[in-house]
């Protein structure tokens, strides 16, 4: 994994993106060599490079928006072809809209067909080569876990579930006396050798410490120092989860990790850039979706009458209460008992129009006004109701940390996890929110917005 603006990105996925960008640029340039404009057949290069770059970036964005970089390393040619088709169709639509505004980007019908064909073939070829390379044992990260408790079991499960380009080969676990064993006997490594000798013997490149009690006399402090000095990377479980799952795990978290772990950028520069981004994004989306919002308001009024909008108190930055604005998607008497209730799957309180606008996230569009007013940011932890915040603060450690920044219309938890409808779901989402609070940047905001497109298109996580 590599770190870009505090966010962890798969090294192989980053290489894949760069290779595909180069392949798409080459496809556009090669096809454009056929583009002649005068009677003498001389090659015309005006706008060629800008048009080629625009084509490549739009296709990369389309593939990202439809989850082409959240893939399985075992993806075959058939699956690759199926996934590429809608991505290129989206790219074609975006390019057509762009060409309507800037006609000089138009290559011509025949040349455009060749560019798309070459680009698709290039992407398929690149992916097959990279996927095959990723399966090589030479690119596997061999890891040893120190400890054999419940946290070690979770780390093994995470390492085993990595179906992307960053593959792990779990060598095994080194048990620590006094710790309850929660892993299979086959995963335990024989004792008798130092950790450095063991790492060299099994060719392990990394050691992950999963032991919670590090003050025990059995904790191998000196051996871990020898490993670090001997060139073997040593990290704790919290860092492992943060890097591989984009989560800060509650069960492996110690206050010192948050205090000394870096991040939590709330500087003037970061706040200013985020506010400018919020204003630009919310203004653009409000203008672009105005017809959709008008139709939605009319449909809600026709089905269930007024009011069309729904205001609800939510907890914002530093615990400040504000009223979030949404299109009403439930019946007017949804909480006639007066007690807030978690939404459930196939909730009977949701109207027919409400079910559709929730699935497409249209009910969230009025929150652009909250962003413009400064109550919310475009990207951040989702704001929760005060009733649930009090409950979660009492039951979930570090829950209030998410209120150190403005809540968002969309966020990392929204694109990585299902709709929250219980305390357990709130804990899972909090672990993503903590990662965002710690590592937030404009780069991460852009990645979350791209993933939001996929969530909206495929209706993931709606209730």
Automatic annotation (TrEMBL):
Keyword set, alphabetical order: Membrane, Transferase, Transmembrane, Transmembrane helix
Instruction: Identify the InterPro entries for this entry.
Output: Bact_transf (IPR003362), EPS_sugar_tfrase (IPR017475), Sugar_tfrase_EpsB_2 (IPR017464)
Reply yes or no: does the keyword Membrane apply: yes
Domain Bacterial sugar transferase: from-to ranges: 274-457
In which broad location class does this protein mainly occur, judging by the first location in its UniProt entry? Answer: membrane
Tell me the GO molecular function terms.
phosphotransferase activity, for other substituted phosphate groups
Give the record's membrane topology. Answer: Multi-pass membrane protein
Q: One Gene Ontology cellular component annotation?
A: membrane
* A Pfam entry, by short name: Bac_transf
Q: Which residue ranges run through the membrane?
A: 49-69, 81-101, 107-130, 276-298
Family the UniProt entry places it in: Belongs to the bacterial sugar transferase family.
What NCBIfam families has UniProt attached to this entry? Answer: EPS_sugtrans, EpsB_2
What name goes with this protein? TIGR03013 family PEP-CTERM/XrtA system glycosyltransferase
Q: From which source organism is this entry? A: Massilia glaciei
- Upper classification of the organism: Bacteria, Pseudomonadati, Pseudomonadota, Betaproteobacteria, Burkholderiales
